[in-house]
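Quick board copy: two proteins, each given as sequence then tokens.
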Amino acid sequence: MPEKPFQDKTEPATPKRREEARKKGQVGKSREIPSVAVLGAGILFLSFAGHHLTFSLGNLIHKTFVSVPFMKDSDFAVLSFFHQYLEAFLFMILPMLAVLTVVAIVANFAQTGFIWSVEPLAPKASKISPIEGAKRMFSKRSLVELAKSLGKILVVGWAAFSTLQANRGHLLALAYQGKAEILRFMGETSLDVVTRSCYVIAVLAILDFLYQKWEFEQDLKMTKQEVKEEFKQTEGDPLVKSRIRSIQREMARRRMMEDVKNADVIITNPEHLSVALRYEALAMEAPTVVAKGANKIAFKIREIAKENRIPLVENKPLAQNLYKFVDIGQEIPPDFYQAAAEILAYVYGLKNKSVAGT
């Protein structure tokens, strides 16, 4: 059955795919979360420190205008004056800037954790391509961003209109009040508008975060073929691995057959088992299994033994136990010492008779 030219992405992203996306700076996050967090932090800061900040700013403006007539007509005096009051202004707003910066960092870190990638900053031809730009302009992501922007405009507009509607009576009274009262009313009304907007934008930010996570997971999904290809790259091609294991088994079998030539005796179960034992009194504590096999391998061991005049001794229980419980290269357990010693003694007796006969 021919493969489909196009496969749907139905498989969840693998850890490797997620790690590669993270290295490229591709993570599921919402830009609205840091925005609303900074907005909320700014509102709280102004709620607690707004009066002091306003008072300090008023004093700075007053001092500035008072000092203007006493300035000397020289570039140095103007620069010194500008530097002095700019430094005072920055020192005044520095606490608020520090708070907002920390909040922005924490809001981003809470979404994605620590991530460092310069790949999004790398120049790409697709970023300046008119065709790709048109595709991005009319893509689903762009439509979603447009809907969010319109939603925020409507939210802010609703907050401003409802606030002014509620304070309609105070607006008419401003015509009979002083400058200080007008500025106070404008500040309080603006803060009220921003606070109401923040509440609704926070809800939109949560919804956007959930949507961005969902869209990110959809983009990361893989086809079945991609999963197979990744498995081959990480774990290796199953066919190649199977071939390697087959070659390794064949090499181990050849080494085992070479070791049969050095065995002292072959213990057999006449039906299908052969176990080759070797014993060197000075080098070994007990006889060692140098080869074993069943069926074809067992008969091959016997052929090599006959060619090298190695005795074959039939002992069904010992052959079965050694084949089952002792690996190649291991010494036999103490439970089998007596049976193996009797067989080896018999074999050595045969060799002595053979030597005496010659």
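And the next:
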Amino acid sequence: MRKDHRPYWLKRLQLQWRHWRTRHFLLPHFDAIGREPEIMDPGSVKVFGRNICLGDFPHLISTPDNCIRFTAMGHRGGDARITIGDYVLISPGVRISAAESIAIGDACMFAANVYISDSDWHGIYNRARPFRCTAPISIGNNVWIGDSAIVCKGVTIGENSVIGAGSVVTRDVPANTVVAGNPARPIKEINPRRRMITREALFADSFRQAHNLDELDKMLLAGNSLRGWLRSLLLPRQGD
């Protein structure tokens, strides 16, 4: 569809239903979650294990065909932990799997299909024994990880750094560095003295932002009717 044919009232009703599903069926699976989580499809966020915490204003763009997965599964019943800061953006297909500890800072952005794991999960010579070769991961504030990148065990990524799409990060990344490749290597430095605008700026006035988005919906959906929406679903035509 080129256009959203829903009437404004129907979209508002669907958003309320989504928020209700998020509060009642998804959020109880987290040990802690901050203010105003925005979950695009709560049914496609999968949470396994305990000690999984999200900060304020998380934005999870999950889709039914590409789930977001959080897994914290320690060795022999021990504790594993996933801690995620404020203002984080997580795209479809992201998988974060901890056998020990994964700590993610504020305002980080993860593109689609990123995989972060602090364990190899099996040994090279004893592949019947799980939870081998585990080391914690630490990701600093305002890190941007590109599409389908992999962050391996024991890695620390410094603040403001960028991981190129498809990269495999096997060693530490300094702050303010762009890396890419397999294995990922530095290709550019980011000027730390230049002003950096992070995702936090989007939520400086969250009430005003929500009001502006609502006003935009009213404008874009003006004139839409229930009959027109049903027609677009059942009898789509060119230009819909």
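Board note added afterward: The first strand starts at residue 32 and ends at 33.
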